[in-house]
C-alpha cells in the first residue's frame, strides 16, 4: 500500500511538471511584451497550482467564442463604414498641423478611421457641470440616446440622469445603455434596471462572466469606454463614469474623484457613435450602423480643428493608442504634460518620457497623491526615481483622486479620453481616446492641468531618495508584477 502511494505521488508530481512545462511553452510562444511573459512565469513558478489557475483566468486575451465569432463577422461591414468616412466633407487632411498629420495617417492605415475637421468641443470640468449638461441634452433629445460606461453607481445626480432617461424613453426616444458587468455591479443590483426596462430602455450587461464559463473568457477584460451620443449630433467622452462623486467610494480615503468630459458636435460624433454600434453588436448581435457625417466644412480660423477618434481593445489593431502616445511624445519639441490616475508605464513609454526630458523637453506627470488601488500605487512609485533622475517633474495631486486622463504636447494638440497610462488600458481593455488638433481647446485643457499642478506637491529627487528602505523593497516587489497591472 505504501508503494502505491509513493507511485501515486510520483505520478502527481510528474503530471504537475508536465502541466507547468506546457503552460511555460504556451507563455513563451505568445508574442507579447517580454516583461509580461516574465511576470507570468514568476507567478506560475512561485505559486504552486494557483499560478496556473491564475494564468488561465487572466493570462490570455480571450474574448469568448460567441463574441469572437461575432466580432469577426462584423469586421467587413464596419471596415466599409469606416472607409466611407474619408469621403465625408469633414475629411480635410490639408488642414491638419504638422504633428497631427502623422497620427492621422497611422490611424487611417491601421484602423481605417481618419481625422475629421469641423468639430466644436467644450471641456466639462466638474461632476455637477458634466451631469447637468447631460441632463439638459437628454431633455432636448428627439430620436436617440446611446450610453456606454464602465461604472454606473446609483446616488445623487446619477439618479437624476436615470430619471431623465426614463422620461425620454416614455416620450418615444430610443434609449440604449451598455454597461460593464463588473464595473456597474452595484447598478445592476439596484432597482434602476427594472424601472428603465419597464419604460422601454434597452440595457445590456457587457462582458458578463458566469462561474461555469470563467475559463472560456478572460475574467478581468473590461469595457472601459465612456461614450454618450444624443440624436447622432451631440457626443460626450472622457474620464468620468456615470457617478456622483459625493456618493461614490466615499469611504475609500482618497477624496472625491476629479474628472473631465468633452462635449462635442460635428463629424467626430459619428465616429463615436460607430464605436458604440460596434460594442453593441459584439454583445447583442444587433446591428445599427449610424449615419455618416454630412454637411459642408468651410475652412476658416474657427473650424480648422481635427479630431482623431481612436478605439482600442480586442478586435482592434494591437496597442494602437500606445503607438499614438509614443509618436506624440517623440514629436514633442517643447513640453509634455500628462495627467493619469494609474501610472504604470511600459518600458517604451518610460524610455520615451526619459528621452524627452533628457533632450530638453519640459515633461510633467500629474498623479493623485492617494490611489484607490494599493497595488497600482506601489507599482507607480517604483518608476519615480528613474524618471526624477532624468529630469521629469512628478506632481502628486492633493485635491482628491485625480481621474482625468490627458496628454498635452507643446500646448498645440492633446490626447484626452478613457485611457490610463498602465498596461491594462494600453493593451487589454476596450478604450477610446481622442487626439485633438485644436490650439484653442488644447489651451483650455492646459489651463485645467495647471490648476491641477497648483493643487499638487512636486516631488523632490533628493527627498524621494530618502524614503524608508521598506518602501523601496515593496515598490520593487510590485515593479516585478507591473506588466500585469
TrEMBL record:
Assigned EC number: 2.7.8.-
PROSITE patterns: PLD
Reactions it catalyzes: 2 a 1,2-diacyl-sn-glycero-3-phospho-(1'-sn-glycerol) = a cardiolipin + glycerol
SUPFAM superfamilies: Phospholipase D/nuclease (SSF56024)
Major localization class: membrane
Catalytic machinery residues: 224, 226, 231, 403, 405, 410
Species this chain originates from: Photobacterium lipolyticum
Compartment(s): Cell membrane
Ranges that cross the membrane: 7-28, 34-58
Listed name of the protein: Cardiolipin synthase A
Record CDD domains: PLDc_EcCLS_like_1, PLDc_EcCLS_like_2
Matching PANTHER family: CARDIOLIPIN SYNTHASE, PHOSPHOLIPASE D
GO cellular component, one term: plasma membrane
Amino acid at each position: 500500500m505504501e508503494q502505491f502511494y509513493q507511485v501515486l505521488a510520483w505520478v502527481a508530481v510528474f503530471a504537475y511538471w508536465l502541466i507547468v512545462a506546457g503552460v511555460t511553452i504556451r507563455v513563451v510562444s505568445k508574442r507579447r511584451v517580454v516583461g509580461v511573459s516574465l511576470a507570468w512565469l514568476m507567478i506560475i513558478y512561485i505559486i504552486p497550482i494557483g499560478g496556473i489557475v491564475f494564468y488561465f483566468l487572466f493570462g490570455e486575451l480571450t474574448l469568448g467564442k460567441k463574441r469572437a465569432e461575432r466580432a469577426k463577422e462584423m469586421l467587413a461591414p464596419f471596415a466599409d463604414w469606416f472607409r466611407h468616412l474619408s469621403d465625408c466633407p469633414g475629411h480635410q487632411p490639408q488642414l491638419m498641423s504638422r504633428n497631427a498629420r502623422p497620427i492621422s495617417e497611422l490611424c487611417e492605415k491601421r484602423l481605417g478611421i481618419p481625422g475629421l475637421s469641423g468639430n466644436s468641443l467644450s471641456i466639462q470640468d466638474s461632476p455637477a457641470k458634466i451631469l447637468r449638461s447631460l441632463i439638459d441634452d437628454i431633455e432636448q433629445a428627439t430620436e436617440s440616446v446611446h450610453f456606454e460606461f464602465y461604472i454606473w453607481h446609483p446616488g445623487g445626480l446619477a439618479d437624476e440622469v436615470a430619471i431623465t432617461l426614463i422620461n425620454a424613453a416614455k416620450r418615444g426616444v430610443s434609449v440604449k445603455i451598455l454597461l460593464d458587468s463588473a464595473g456597474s455591479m452595484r447598478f445592476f443590483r439596484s432597482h434602476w434596471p427594472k424601472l428603465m426596462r419597464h419604460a422601454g430602455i434597452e440595457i445590456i450587461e457587457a462582458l458578463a462572466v458566469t462561474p461555469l464559463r470563467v475559463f472560456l473568457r478572460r475574467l478581468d477584460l473590461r469595457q472601459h469606454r465612456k461614450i454618450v451620443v444624443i440624436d447622432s449630433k451631440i457626443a460626450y467622452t472622457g474620464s468620468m463614469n456615470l457617478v456622483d462623486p459625493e456618493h461614490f467610494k466615499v469611504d475609500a480615503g482618497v477624496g472625491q474623484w476629479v474628472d473631465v468630459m468633452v462635449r462635442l458636435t460635428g463629424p467626430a460624433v459619428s465616429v463615436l457613435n460607430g464605436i458604440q454600434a460596434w460594442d453593441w453588436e459584439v454583445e447583442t448581435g444587433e446591428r445599427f450602423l449610424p449615419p455618416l457625417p454630412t454637411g459642408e466644412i468651410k475652412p476658416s480660423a474657427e473650424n480648422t480643428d481635427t479630431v482623431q477618434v481612436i478605439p482600442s481593445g480586442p478586435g482592434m489593431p494591437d496597442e494602437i493608442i500606445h503607438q499614438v502616445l509614443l509618436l506624440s511624445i517623440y514629436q514633442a519639441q517643447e513640453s509634455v504634460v500628462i495627467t493619469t490616475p494609474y501610472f504604470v508605464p511600459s518600458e517604451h513609454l518610460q524610455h520615451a518620457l526619459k528621452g524627452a526630458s533628457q533632450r530638453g523637453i519640459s515633461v510633467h506627470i500629474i498623479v493623485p497623491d492617494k490611489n484607490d488601488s494599493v497595488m497600482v500605487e506601489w507599482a507607480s512609485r517604483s518608476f519615480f526615481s528613474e524618471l526624477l533622475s532624468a529630469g521629469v517633474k512628478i506632481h502628486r495631486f492633493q485635491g482628491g483622486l485625480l481621474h482625468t486622463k490627458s496628454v498635452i504636447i507643446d500646448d498645440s494638440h492633446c490626447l484626452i479620453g478613457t485611457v490610463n497610462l498602465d498596461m491594462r488600458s494600453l493593451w487589454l481593455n476596450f478604450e477610446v481616446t481622442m487626439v485633438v488638433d485644436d490650439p484653442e481647446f488644447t489651451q483650455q485643457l492646459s489651463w485645467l492641468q495647471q490648476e491641477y499642478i497648483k493643487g499638487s506637491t512636486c516631488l523632490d529627487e533628493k527627498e524621494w531618495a530618502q524614503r524608508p528602505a521598506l518602501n523601496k523593497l515593496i515598490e520593487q516587489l510590485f515593479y516585478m508584477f507591473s506588466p500585469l497591472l
